[in-house]
Amino acid sequence: MRKVLVVLVSLAMLFSVVPVAMGAFEDMPKATHWAYDNFMLLYNAGLLKGYPDGTFKGERYATRYEMVELTARILKYLESQMYGSATLPENGGRVALTEAQAKELIRRALEEEQVATAADIDAIYDALWELEYELRNELDARSDVNVSLLANRVAALETKVEEQGARLDAVEKQTKSNKTIGIVALILGVAGIVFGFVPAN
Asked: Which residues form the SLH domain (predicted)?
């Protein structure tokens, strides 16, 4: 879990929109820094671009806009790794990756580094899903992001809500039926007492 947290913190702190002309950042962490391995993983994957002055400014917090750009960049990176596993939409829209598809793309992306366990991949997927969910309005407004991790989960949740609604309707109907039977039984009981329809012993 710490590795995933480090990756997310590194993503948040090490991001910029403008690419650096040089091969490395002037202020990149040293090899002994706790975030170095994750920094290099993200840098080598092309997800860290830095600022025009050749720095990545890892000591400052990322803005919401930077996080939108980073999340979009990660989703576009996953899209580029799809190898025809999903058809991109014509005229806009987004392809919904299943959880298994997204995790396989993450696994492939981290395969060369051989650092990610199944638990790490699960945690990275969950963290990326949370980021996309939090930034969904901004990401939906972009025309360059063609994949989504949200749509399948949302569709599954909507299906569960519909199923629960159908169950609730059935329970309400049964409750009304039970109330009706109870009222009829009460009326018959009162009528029996009033008119003397009492069973003999």
From this structure: 22-85
Paired with 174 in beta bridges are none
Is residue 97 exposed (0-12), middle (13-18) or buried (19+ Cβ within 10 Å)? Answer: buried
DSSP at 17: S
Which single residue is written with the structure tokens 């969910």?
A: 133
Backbone φ, ψ for residue 147 (5° rounding): -120, 155
Per-residue pLDDT reduced to its tens digit, 135-175 = 888 888 887 777 777 765 556 667 777 888 888 888 888 88
Angle between helices 64-80 and 2-13 (to 10 degrees): 110
Question: How many C-beta atoms surround the C-beta of residue 22 within 10 A?
Answer: 9
Q: How many whole angstroms separate alpha carbon 13 and alpha carbon 2?
A: 16
Confidence of residue 76 (pLDDT cuts 50, 70, 90): confident
Q: Quick one: pLDDT at residue 81?
A: 76
Q: Answer yes or no: are the C-beta atoms of 20 and 51 closer than 8 Å.
A: yes
Beta-carbon contacts of 51 under 8 Å, excluding residues fewer than 6 positions away, are 16, 18, 20, 57
pTM above 0.85, yes or no: no
The domain segmentation of the chain, as residue ranges, is 2-148, 159-201
Burial class (CB in 10 A: 0-12, 13-18, 19+), 124: buried
